[in-house]
Amino acid sequence: MKKLLMLSFWGTILLLSVAPLAAQNTVDVLNNGPQPANTAGCAVNPNCIPAVWSTTSNAGADISAAISANFVFASNVGALPTDFPAATSGQVCLADTRDLTGTTLFGQIATYCQAAGGVALLLIRDSAVNAPSAIPVFVISTANGDFLRNTVGFNTTTGVSNFPLRINPAVSAPPSNPTGQHNCPNGQAVTAYVGPGTATYTANESLCLPVGAGQAVEPSMTVDSQGTIYVQSIRGVPGGLDLWRWYRTADGGPNADGTLPFKYEGQPDCGMFITPFCTASGLAPGGGDGDVAVNYPDPLNLNIPNLAVVSLSAAEITGSNSTNRADTFSTPNVAAAGVPFDDRMWINGINDPSHVYMEYHDFGTTSQIFVQRSADGGETYNDAAGTVVDAATEPSVGPPTGNIAGQIKVDNSSCSSHGNLYQIFVGPDNPVDNTHNSLAYMNAAYVGVATGVSLTNPTLSFTDYKIFSCGAGSTCPSGAGLGNLFPALAVDNFGYVYAAWSDNSDVYYSYSTTLGTRWSPAIKVTQNSSQAGKSNVFPWIAADANGHVAIAWYGADQVGNSNTVPATDTHWNVFVAESVNGHANSPVFAVSQATDHSNHTGQISTGGLLGSSDRSLADFFEIAIDPNHLVNIAYADNHAGPSVTYFTRQKAATAGISTKGKCAGSSHQAGGNGHVKGKKSGNAQFSFSYDDSNQPTGSASFSDSGSGVNFQTTQVTAATFDQAAHSVTLIGTGTDNGRPVAFTIVAADSSLAPPGLLSITLSDGYNNSGNLLDGSITVY
After folding, report:
1. Phi/psi zone of residue 685: left (φ > 0), alpha (ψ -120 to 50 degrees), beta?
2. DSSP H or E segment with residue 498
3. Which residues in the chain land under pLDDT 70?
4. How far is CA 13 from CA 40, 128, 130, 437, in A?
5. Which residues contact 692 (CB under 8 A, 6 or more apart)?
6. What stretch of H or E contains 277?
7. 711 - beta bridge partners?
8. E strands along 620-756, which residues?
9. What does DSSP assign to residue 212?
10. For burial by CB atoms within 10 Å, which of 93, 458, 759, 773 has the most?
């Protein structure tokens, strides 16, 4: 099995596996030793280190009495019996998982520790673990691990610490809900946090999480047509999912600071009948990956929109749904996928009461992307099926390198394109680049398009189109390729399609006005912003209205690859780029910071199992736009302890959002700039644009200094598009050196009819025509 096909799956299963009932233990440094600066989550001593217990250790029982002993640091993370020195007997083992050089089971490290006489194991890691063993195993963060290694310190000969430690039994802190969140269980994974907010976004709020969850990462979210917000996160296999809901009628309106009183809805992959088992054990059939989707109100069910949820286990996808706004869920279908042994599924609902599409990745050797449809709201997915990677594209994005699949999106517009399916993925540009078997050569972005989809046809047929390429043989400007988990996709209310991706340095954006068959030149939304030239990863995109687009990502304050930036001095925040003319010839984005505090310090891994840096935030986060055109964001945050889910939303809708206009595929756009030869001498410079997707707008300029021409439009009165010639004819009025003239401009697309052509005729007798010397012309 090819390792690159396994990155996302094993990155989740092995690196995010959590002890589902991990209680909040703590560690103290004794004998007046140095005290840690990070005291968040401590319930025993105001100067302590939070620790998470692996429920599969110590015969399944948390410690009932404190363990006081020195720690003994294990070289090579304790992957070999000889890594634990003789002084280990009677002491606590301290092992740093960042020192791993190969695949080693956490329970195996504990076994070697016990064999050397160790009484407990502290693992340094930014996410909880599953470590079956006879001695208790606890996880502490890398920041606190570095504090023990470097500040408390140890004898380099014996490995024994300079000060003793005390590992305390778990103490549950009472729930704290300053934002009015309700149904929160007793004992929280982290102390509740409410920030000051930013100029554009509300106070950031942590969502209440039971202490037994261990973590809440990779938050997915969706907003239904009635404005109900659903946020879901994963614990890791076999911990399942956690879900929160804000439904104004039942949960209450926004607080004065804009925060929302979310209701904690428990674990949706537990279902209706096994919830007591989940509650007691913390186990659920999934938790490796998750996603949520909504349908439109069901007239046969009090106009309540259906909510679908999927959860990934090691071998299958669990599907369930709720018809009462997440208060209860159907019994989980633990075999929702038609192909066993799967990876990274996404779902999206169509705007009817019950149809949901699910995408997932083959974890086997084909690297195929499968799509299935549910007709029962997400309980089963056997209504239709198809594959995304077509025969022409498979040699480029199949084995050995494979591809990384992003989300699937349905066209829910009222246009003729309603029901179209779009599936984004990244992979090598061509078969030669594929032979490198390297993430760095995932240098192109693609979209699979299924048109004319019928809800009565069980077959889904996709054709693939290339959105963007860094170039054959290229590893992109950053040298990291585009496989930076995950490319993202959105469709607005008029059928325009939008894509975003990252090369680990910049966030890129492209749009399609032609239903996914042709894409605009990519732009860097990070360019000319505070994040230009820094590390930017995990973009997510949402769209509504006509051209209203928002892109969010994690942005660092350091230059460099997110996997190798300074681990102690790199601070991350959530940034948002928003546009109200997202499919214009030159879209304008405004960039703002959504987080009111740094949500993470250190590195962010984009390498899955093979990544050696910090995966505590997992691999993505999501945003959604609500019916009031507000951008809602759910993100992972570990600034105050374990990684949990936070929420913030835009304070006010951005001005200029248009809810009218032409549908994608029926509108036209054209634009260009560059030079052609002058009529008499030198070069002539031109620029023009035309867009009738909303209110028809157009402009043009032409300067030929050798002929004394300086033309500017005042009005474009007519535009004619020739799809066969890929050209546009613009007619209107303007001025030449201030004198009124009529004009006709004909321009041919420089990429579809190379090298491009521009001709201009003015009523004062000037005319000129020629191929482009530089620049470009696009005609859609």
Report:
1. beta
2. strand 497-502
3. 1-23, 38-47, 172-176, 271-283, 314-315, 364, 608-612
4. 27, 12, 10, 22
5. 662, 667, 668, 669, 719
6. helix 275-281
7. 702, 736
8. 622-625, 631-637, 644-649, 669-677, 683-691, 697-704, 709-722, 727-736, 739-748
9. G
10. 93
449, β-bridge pairs: 422, 463
Ramachandran sector of residue 618 (left: φ over 0; alpha: ψ -120 to 50; beta: rest): left
β-strand 488-491 against 507-512: which pairing, if any? unpaired
User: Please, are residues 633 and 576 in contact by the beta-carbon 8 Å criterion?
Assistant: yes
* Cα separation, 700 vs 688, whole angstroms: 4
Q: CB count, 10 Å around CB of 431?
A: 12
- Whole-angstrom distance, CA of residue 612 vs CA of residue 278: 32
Give CA separation, 766 vs 268, 682, 710, 711, 714, in Å. Answer: 71, 16, 11, 10, 18
134, burial (CB in 10 Å: exposed 0-12, middle 13-18, buried 19+): exposed
3-state secondary structure of 9: helix
Tell me which residue of 438, 127, 84 sits closest to 288, measured CA to CA.
127
Q: Are 661 and 582 in contact (CB under 8 A)?
A: no
pTM value surpassing 0.70: yes
| Rounded-to-integer distance, Cα 608 and Cα 590, Å | 32
* Token pair recorded at residue 335: 């075999």
- Which residue type occupies 653? A
Tokens for 717? 């009165």
List pLDDT tens digits, range 685-721: 999 999 999 889 999 999 999 999 999 999 999 999 9
The first and second tokens of residue 406, run together, are 């992003």
Encode pLDDT of 527-582 as tens digits: 999 999 999 999 999 999 999 999 999 999 999 999 999 988 999 999 999 999 99
Alpha carbon distance 447, 425 (integer Å): 6
For 615-641, the DSSP string reads -TT-S--EEEE-TT--EEEEEEE-TTS
Which two three-digit tokens encode residue 405?
Answer: 């699949």
Q: What is the pLDDT of residues 55-107, one digit of tens each?
A: 889 988 889 899 999 999 998 888 899 999 999 999 999 999 888 877 778 88
Q: Are 287 and 311 in contact (CB under 8 A)?
A: yes
- Give per-residue pLDDT as tens, 262-289: 999 998 887 654 556 566 656 677 778 8
Query: Tokens standing for 498?
Result: 């939008």
Residues in contact with 50: Cβ distance below 8 Å, sequence separation at least 6, in sequence order = 24, 25, 26, 38, 40, 41, 42, 140, 141, 144, 641, 642
Residue 556 is encoded by which pair of tokens? 């660092």
Go through the chain and tell me how many residues it has: 780
CA proximity to 352, closest of 420, 422, 419, 450: 419
Q: Which helix (H) or strand (E) holds 251?
A: helix 248-251
Residue 757 pairs in a beta bridge with 748, 771
Residues with Cβ within 8 Å of residue 60, at least 6 apart in sequence: none
Task: Give me the chain's average pLDDT, please.
Answer: 90
Sequence-distant (≥ 6) Cβ neighbours of residue 736 within 8 angstroms: 709, 710, 711, 762, 764, 766
Residues 6+ apart with CB under 8 A from 302: none
441 neighbors 380 (Cβ within 8 angstroms)? no
What letter represents residue 267's amino acid? Q
CA separation (Å) from 345 to 52, 553, 701? 29, 20, 49
